[in-house]
Design a protein that fits this description.
Chain A: One of its GO terms (cellular component) is plasma membrane. The structure holds two protein chains of two kinds. By secondary structure, chain A is mainly alpha-helical. Chain A contains 25 helices and no strands. In chain B, the strands form two sheets. Chain B has a six-stranded mixed beta sheet, sandwiched between helices. A five-stranded mixed beta sheet of chain B has the order 7-6-8-5-9.
Chain lengths: 537, 316
């Protein structure tokens, strides 16, 4: 074996110009946003407010725990669970139906139809759950459907998109073989595509359930009951001990949903070895599906939902009342000017929030990631950071906005940072999970070769991590645009301030204009982030 | 012997038992349809009875206390009128107005402005009663001690300070203060960086205490309650008190009058004005509302609020 081999040609390393252009563009937008938040034009910090902030922070150590309040919280927790379960179930059902209309598989080469159906999604997706809740409240009154639909509609739209992508991405051999054998398109998809996509669909459904718990709390803030409702009441009087008790209850719920979802996802990713025998059902997955169905049935009973309210005469009357008041949209110059200013603020807030969350999430990802085989000290540190991230996302953004307003001067910045802190809670966890999936070998070999810890991370982990992290950050950017409405409801800047003002004045025509602007903004950000992702891929 | 070859093997059994479980759950769920929801009263009432009288209150002062002790008010009212009374919790000013319009709430404790909004959106609504203190209600302007301002009746010095109102449609935390500022020549939408909306009276106090906003305005009743409890930060200075105006009142919707009879408004007014601080059960209700007694009221008491609301674009 002495054949002469040509030495391997090293790929020419060069900078990718397109990536540089997008990167520099990103930095410029961040600079513009920070300037807009007044960071370079005078003081933004209010050191005198540290005492008020301290009251909030120190109450974390002494949450309210008298029996009466815990009883109130227990009942509220059940309501939140029921909303989350039914909202997620509705979202999965809507997503399954919608995916058919959105998949490239359905449309084939008819790109126009596909584009139209995707743009139609922008309306349900572009509005925050809390906004849907406020609108539905005006039509359905105090009916538990408000909470279920407010979660189910926007989540359903997101789920439909993800489901369609999953269906489009599975191997198509079976599907095409069935088509060639003369099967109809429907049955070919059912037998050729669905089985291979089933694992991904199941994983994502459970992920949605986890998110729905947090959304159910946000809905409580607008009066739909549950933990968020109790939190909002205590928040209005700044009873921080009670606020923290509600936050801990929520964190516990999120943790449970997370553990369940994680077990299912792990099993889907690494199925049990089939062995030599005929395939049997996986008891864990069967249990999860049956358990979820049981939870849904219980939730339906607990909330006492009746489909009759949806078609009741009163519902239609109220729908007519709101639609007549809301159409045509207001278009006077003053309003449009205010909308334009608020839209710029909103974009700047979302950019600052995402930049802060992404940078911090990367910073803590190395420690937050689970590392099997590490010592107990490392485990405790990791668990502590993961718990801190959980708390960051369990405290609703309006609460962050007020407590940050104690230590910052009024403006766009408190709202932006509030969103950033909350998004860090979400993104930190996702980035940590991405870190766990990175191939450990490059880092290990660098370390054995004598690289420092930081060096090993910078050259062994970061390059592999940057792609998924940017994709996650760009996805959360669109979510952050919708979330600015939430901090705005408390007057912390952005288009949410305008929205809450117009809603408080029952100026429905102006509400239509503002909502249309929000939908357009989130659509624009979605398109931009899609193009960025393509360029970076 | 391969297990799959046997019919009725473990695969099929798992399948059948889970189907049975799902079926049982569905039956249980449907059987539970007659249940009342923990978040709302079921909208479908049996036609033979008038159903309960649904009462609510805007979340204003100490909402957590009021909303969690609602049993007190509901029981007292139910005993006195001999009807079923149900307390419906609400967290949002605008939501309370909308729910009154949709008929989900029959009798609501509204602020001055929200009462006007609700009455204009719900033809046939009748004001029932107000507290003794609501005939002459006041707001107080507060400033942070670092501003160096001494208490005064002159509101002009506030114009140059970072200023926050309370909730956007609060009568005492926004509407009337804006009116009195205008009267003294201060633009109510001015202030450096624009006015803030803290969301609640307590948040206003905390934000002025922190110095984030140098000045703010809130309900005098809340201020006095916090001062009596020693909860006001030493850096908050009481700067000025507004002239008197009408504020909170109970408003009854037309749907309840249809269901319970034409005399319902009079019976309700009679109940509220008859509450006596001497009676221990009555005293509990009065204390919950921070009232010495309730007195009758009428729609014309709120004409001034409606006019100012229109000027500020809060009433359409």
């Amino acid at each position: 074996m002495t054949a002469v081999r040509t030495p391997p040609v090293a790929p020419r390393l060069r900078r990718d110009r397109r990536r540089w252009a997008w990167g520099l563009g990103g930095v410029a937008v961040l600079g513009w946003s920070l300037a807009g938040a007044g960071l370079f034009s005078g003081p933004v910090v209010n050191p005198a407010g540290v005492r008020q902030f301290g009251r909030f922070a120190s109450a974390a150590l002494s949450p309210a725990h008298d029996a009466e309040f815990l009883g109130v919280l227990a009942e509220a927790t059940l309501v939140t669970v029921a909303y989350a379960a039914l909202g997620a179930a509705l979202a999965v059902a809507l997503g399954a139906i919608g995916a058919v209309g959105l998949a490239r598989t359905t449309w084939g080469r008819r790109r126009a139809g596909w584009t139209v159906s995707r743009s139609l999604l922008a309306v349900p997706r572009g509005l925050h759950e809390a906004v849907w809740g406020l609108l539905l409240l005006n039509v359905l009154g105090l009916d538990p459907w408000v909470g279920v639909l407010a979660i189910g509609i926007p989540y359903g739209a997101v789920t439909a998109k993800v489901f369609a992508d999953l269906l489009d991405e599975v191997p198509r051999g079976g599907y095409e073989a069935l088509l060639a054998a003369g099967a109809g398109r429907g049955s070919a998809a059912l037998y050729g595509l669905l089985p291979s996509a089933a694992g991904g669909l199941l994983s994502y459904s459970f992920y949605r359930l986890e998110c729905a718990v947090r959304s159910a709390v946000v809905l409580g803030l607008i009066g739909a009951g549950g933990l968020g409702y109790q939190l909002a009441l205590s928040f209005a009087s700044l009873r921080w001990e009670q606020v923290w008790a509600a936050v801990y209850a929520l964190a516990a719920l999120c943790m449970l949903a997370d553990l369940g979802g994680r077990a299912v996802r792990r099993r889907v990713a690494a199925p049990r070895p089939a062995g030599g025998q005929a395939p049997t059902r996986d008891p864990l997955l069967t249990g999860a599906v049956v358990g979820s169905l049981a939870l849904m049935a219980w939730s339906w009973w607990f909330l006492a939902l009746t489909p009759a309210t949806l078609t009741a005469g009163r519902t239609l009357d109220q729908l007519g009342y709101v639609l007549r008041a809301a159409w045509p949209p207001a278009a006077d110059g003053d309003l449009l000017a205010a909308v334009a200013v608020a839209a710029v603020d909103t974009v700047q807030m979302s950019v600052i929030a995402i930049a802060l969350a992404t940078a911090s999430a990367l910073g803590v990802s190395g420690l937050a990631a689970r590392r099997p085989g590490a010592g107990p000290g490392r485990w405790a540190l990791g668990a502590g950071i993961r718990f801190a991230l959980l708390l960051l996302r369990a405290v609703p953004p309006p609460v962050w906005a007020l407590v940050l307003l104690f230590v910052l001067l009024p403006g766009v910045l408190p709202g932006a940072l509030a969103l950033g802190v909350y998004t860090l809670g979400v993104l930190g966890r996702l980035v940590a999970e991405a870190t766990e999936e990175v191939d450990p070998r490059p880092r290990a070999s660098l370390r054995v070769a004598g690289a420092s810890r930081l060096g090993g991370w910078l050259y062994g982990v970061l390059p592999a991590l940057s792609g998924p992290v940017l994709a996650l950050a760009l996805y959360r950017w669109e979510v952050a645009i919708r979330d600015t409405v939430l901090v705005g409801l408390l007057g912390a800047g952005g288009i949410g301030v305008l929205l809450s003002g117009r809603i408080a004045a029952f100026d429905w025509a102006a509400v239509t204009t503002v909502l249309a602007t929000i939908v357009l903004l989130s659509l624009a950000v979605d398109l931009l982030s899609e193009r960025t992702r393509t360029a970076l891929r | 012997m391969p297990r799959a070859a046997r019919s009725g093997g473990p695969v099929a059994r798992v399948h059948r038992s889970s189907l049975l479980l799902i079926y049982l759950l569905l039956v249980a769920a449907l059987a539970g349809c007659g249940r009342t929801s923990p978040v709302s009263d079921s909208a479908e009432e049996t036609s033979s009875t008038a159903g309960p009288l649904r009462i609510g209150a805007i979340p204003d002062q100490d909402p957590e206390v009021l909303q969690r002790l609602y049993g007190t008010v509901a029981d007292s009212l139910a005993d006195a009128l001999d009807v079923d009374v149900e307390y419906v919790p609400v967290t949002d000013y605008a939501a309370a107005v909308s729910l009154f319009r949709t008929g989900d709430l029959d009798l609501v404790w509204f602020g001055g402005l929200t009462g006007v909004q609700a009455r204009l959106q719900t033809p046939g609504a009748v004001p029932i009663a107000q507290r003794d203190i609501d005939e002459e209600f006041h707001s107080v302007f507060v400033v942070n001690s670092a501003t160096g301002l001494a208490p005064s009746d002159d509101l002009a010095p506030l114009a140059g300070l970072r200023f926050t109102y309370g909730s956007e449609t609060s009568t005492s935390g926004r509407l009337m203060p804006a009116h009195f500022l205008t009267e003294q020549g201060v633009e109510p939408g001015g202030f450096p960086g624009g006015p803030g909306f803290s969301g609640s009276h307590d948040a206003t106090l905390a934000l002025v205490a922190s110095g984030t906003y140098e000045a703010g305005v809130l309900n005098e009743q809340v201020y006095e309650a916090r001062a009596a409890a020693g909860e006001i930060d030493p850096s908050v200075v009481r700067y000025a008190r507004t002239p008197a105006y009408h504020d909170y009142h109970w408003l009854l919707g037309p749907g309840a009058i249809d269901r319970f009879g034409e005399d319902l408004p009079d019976r309700l007014t009679g109940y509220f004005t008859g509450l006596s601080a001497e009676d221990p059960a009555d005293a509990e209700v009065l204390e919950l509302f921070g009232a010495g007694s309730f007195v009758p009221t009428e729609a014309s008491n709120y004409d001034q609020i409606e006019r100012i609301g229109r000027d500020l674009g809060l009433v359409n």
